[in-house]
Amino acid sequence: MRTARRRTEPEQQVPRPASVPTPSSWLEPVLLAVTTAALAAGGVFWLLGQGSRADLCWALGTIAAVGPAVGWVLGALRQGRAGVDLIAVLALGGTLAVGEYLAGALIALMLATGRALEAAAQQRASHDLRALLEHAPRTARRRTDGEVRTVPLAEVAVGDLLVVGPGEVVPVDGLVVGATAVLDESVLTGESAPVERVHGQTVRSGVVNAGSAFELRATATEQDSTYAEIVRLAQQAGAESAPVVRLADRYAAWFLPLSVATAGLAWLLSGSAVRAVAVLVVATPCPLLLAAPVAIVSGLSRASRLGVVVRDGGALENLGRARTLLLDKTGTLTGGRPRVLDVSAAPGWKPADVLRLAATVDQYSPHVLAHAVVDAARERGLEPAEVTDVAEEPGRGARGVVEGRRATVGRLEPGVQPPAWARSVENRALLDGAAVAWLTMDGVPVGAVLLRDPIRPDAPRTLRRLRTAGMERIVMLTGDRTEPAREVAAVLGLDDVRAELAPAGKVAAVRAERERAVTVMVGDGVNDAPALAAATVGVAMGARGSTASSEAADVVLTTDRVDPLADAVAIAVRARRIAVQSALGGMVMSLAAMAAAAVGLLPPAVGALLQEGIDVAVILNALRALRVDQASRPTLEPATEALIRRFAAEHDDLQDVLEAVRGAAAHLADGGGAQALASVREVHRLLTERLLPHEYAEEHQLYPALMPTLGGPEATATMSRAHAEIERLARRIATHLTLADADGGLAPEQLEDLRACLYGLHTVLRLHFTQEEENYFSLAP
Question: Does the annotation mark 656 as catalytic?
Fold first, then answer.
């Protein structure tokens, strides 16, 4: 059950993919500098009365833009689309043909500015999965004639006997030889609990050895192993993804033929080529070349301030029109690390003592479950005792001498039968999908700690906000077991769940969803990288997720929270809406100017200046995307945030009260003897001294502070009603104790109602705590 190392990043030597073509990093800024300088120099010469030199500068600026613009147009045509740049090329050529060089220089500057804005956004990162390659090990330890030698991974052949040390990544697929292997397979399956593989069982490359060293008989070479296949899947998925069609290009599909037809008609009816050029000049889609990129880049900037890195404008556009959301479970919807769910104690023992002793033994263990036990004890203010002779057996647990007694935490020793009280623990672990760490003292089980990877407190609110933002279908894709996956899906109200999926299965599911709608995939592990690459928009949990998933994604959340995803979608929707408004508004004004130019009211130079005025108007509108949308995430006053943190800490401290309530109800099930009565008295003391003061303080301090943020008293009304129910049940328990004092003990007719009160109180408290953590505490950063 126990491991000897923390979870580490999987590494594996894989074939390096072909490089992905990317836009030149220097062309756009150089073109912007040249066109700006040419326009400025021409303006200086014109002011000095040197018109010919001014025309020469403007003509050079126009010519400088023609070459790159033609290249961009040809690139778009090769992809089967006529982009927005085609009108600019026609206008540039027309101004040169009729000698309207100032108009050409202005158009060149507009074209260069729009392209530079897009290029700046696209330089954030690449999608070539470099991390899967650069951080991979290049060697393996091979045993030959009793001697272990380090060899290049490429030299490992089928049948070789390899040694995998503690904390190392399994280099190739193989079979366990000899001792049992304890493995962290979360990078492939998403399941956080370690698993055991006995002699003869298969182990896949990329998983981490979470126990002691073991030997592995290679069944595949480096190229044919599981981890290399994941990289190939990611590369293939990324290559098959449809290229992003810019918002500007979609509008250009109808604006381009309309502009050319209008220019041709003006030339045909008037016989003047200048009129045709004037139409093309004012038809130059600067609202598309500038306004849409400004709005999108403003959205990128706004998202980055909230901890969301978006690779480029195309990703933000797609995020704004997505309708299907696919999510991994472990590390995305859940925290990715086990936490203590409950503590059960044998008769005569207290849950707090069980947790304290378990943490005492586990404090020196590197096991992920041991860290959860120690953290839970620390949160509840339980100080560990002195421990000596600490040792750990991988896969079994930790042991030591505590207070003169031999204590073990982990699995029960072989041959030890669980006592009768432990049956409910085993049943609950099965029902809740939890792991169990047993505490034994001198070989006798005295308690159990149940651990489970909990749902992120911010996940329910985030999913509600995502549905509000336009997500119509939310589905979980996970490699975890079906039972825990379905439980999480039920709690969060997901539309569908697909469990026990291998990386290839996730890719297939993403492709199926992508055929029906624009699809977003969110994940954090190496096993998610191919699915992220296959989705329309891939989102990686970058704070604790794998570098591979971040490299394969279009969007990276830099904080260990999922709610920035809702912020990113809200920003994307707003930025795209503003971009559409700016583009359409600008094109309407351009159409009016085209009509004026067609009848001879606007010469090309005046038309170019008018187009500049239109540009200023639409750019100012596009910059609204930088403004904060207060509705996206409520803002908290510093004092309110401090109150949230205070009461969140008190929730952790009150977990032992919940355990005492449940334990007292269990004691009543065995009868109303002196021990049961004592446990009820202890519950009453805890309620009176700790829980009810906490609830009173929440009602009169936290809730009033939250009302301005949440929109008034109705936002906290249901939570206040829960406070009243908690107080009612506490008074009912006190009344039962008063009756017991009068009668010299609990009467038989009291037992059923008292037990119902305790179980009801436990249920209400758990639900109430969860609702507060999801709805209120998750508001704090």
Answer: no
Q: Which pairing describes strands 397-402 and 405-410: parallel, antiparallel, or unpaired?
A: antiparallel
Contacts 24+ apart (CB under 8 A), 665-673: 665/755, 665/758, 665/759, 665/762, 666/424, 667/347, 668/751, 668/754, 668/755, 668/758, 669/755, 671/751, 672/745, 672/746, 672/747, 672/748, 672/750, 672/751
Homologous superfamily of domain range 308-335+456-558: HAD superfamily/HAD-like (3.40.50.1000)
* Three-class DSSP category at 344: strand
Q: What is the pLDDT of residues 450-479, one digit of tens each?
A: 888 888 888 888 898 899 888 999 999 988
Best CATH choice for the domain 638-779 from the list 3.40.50.12240, 1.20.1540.10, 3.40.50.300, 1.20.120.520: 1.20.120.520
Q: How far is CA 349 from CA 6, 344, 408, 447, 594, in A?
A: 31, 9, 16, 8, 87
Query: pLDDT for 376-406, tens place per residue?
Result: 888 888 888 888 888 877 667 888 888 888 9
How does pLDDT run across 497-522, given as a tens digit for each residue? 998 888 888 889 999 999 999 999 99
Options 328, 362, 453, 656, the catalytic residue: 328
> How do residues 550-608 score in pLDDT, each as one tens digit?
566 778 776 777 888 888 898 888 888 888 888 778 778 878 888 888 887 877 777 76
> Which of 514-549 are b and which e, b meaning 16 or more Cβ less than 10 Å from the residue's Cβ?
beebbbbbbbbbbbbbbbbbbbbbbbbbbeebbbbb
Pure H helices in 147-272: 186-189, 226-240, 247-270
Asked if pLDDT for residue 231 goes beyond 70, the answer is no
Phi (first) and psi of residue 416, to 5 degrees: -85, 120
